[in-house]
Amino acid sequence: xxxxxxxVIGNGMAGMxxxxxxxxxxxxxxxxTIFGAEPxxxxxxxxxxxxxxxxxxxxxxxxxxxxxxKDNHITLHAGPDKQVVSINRRRRLVESRDGTSARYDRxxxxxxxxxxxxxxxxxxxxxxxxxxxxxxxxxxLSYAASKQHAVVLGGGxxxxxxxxxxxxxxxxxxxxxxxxxxxxxxxxxTAADLLQTEFESRGIQFKMAAETKELIGDKSGHxxxxxxxxxxxxxxxxxxxxxxxxxxxxxxxQAGLHCERGIVVNDTLQTFDPSIYAVGECVQxxxxxxxxxxxxxxxxxxxxxxxxxxxxxxxxxxxxxxxxKVSGINMxxxxxxxxxxxxxxxxxxxxxxxxxxxxxxxxxxLVGAVLYGDTKDGSWYxxxxxxxxxLASIRSMLIFGQHYADVFAQEMTDSPMPEVA
Length: 421
Fold this sequence. Notes:
By secondary structure, the chain is α/β, with parallel strands linked by helices. The chain has 10 helices and 27 strands.
């Protein structure tokens, strides 16, 4: 009896997590074929920053090497020529750039996202790159070995990780950010100032609230200078654009699938075509798109549940915590760290120890948290936020963390009730 044929477009973390979950649930259910545009197995993309810093090697961040695919009887087509360029939904057929094709009974699209490139003058010069994959990391390492001046555009997570890695490789690094605070989507101004001070102590310079005007190149077409709207300029041998990503859904759109800001999926990660599923940074679920690994992995689990025939799981989006992958810097953020007029703030700041905590509550439930310097209670705060439990009984101890809150709650439980006359 012929097995069902599952074709996966995308060999990254989201698609392969779904395949791993599927193999665990029903290892012999499908004949699986995977197409990937990079010439590797599946690697941990979020660990590219430690590779850039020299803390890890490419081999050490591989999740599934090529032998794993063979061991699990998976056909892998990997490399630029194997990038899928068409989906024929009527014939249930996908075809790659070099003409390799595969038929499917079920199709999983996991094409991820693409780095956003701001099209100001000079953005196509040599030496202007993104920070997205192994090729980008190898390019940065090559520049660090022979060049001096690096400019990183973007004061978000990826930009700061790129800046830290290039600095550790010996380059002079300036981070350019269009806001007055770093990580403005994850941190309030106090935590952001602490973070910037720490990076400055490591030799990284910052140009904040800056508007990049143009990249200037030499006669050979290589970037040499960055100019700004205020008339200032910076020397530049390497310009890293780390200003966000956008869902990569053009292939799905060309195939006639419903797309808006991403491939629109329902709570089972199914597209409007019942034979086609999608997971990861390429999708749009209930109006939201995704850029962090936690929700992507949860999507993969739900998708595998349905592909394996169980059909009971539904994807529900929960607040996702943010951490910075830079050695020696402890930072945690989750939920609404600003709050509104109906919220209460609890803050703690030890300037000598560089420890800062900010909790945001509404009606005695936690809606957001920012931790800097001491993040050991981050997962506890996240669980409180997700459970939406009433915290009135431990509110006075909440800022000091789980241990003190638990001790306080136990003491209140052990205290004898006063006698009623």
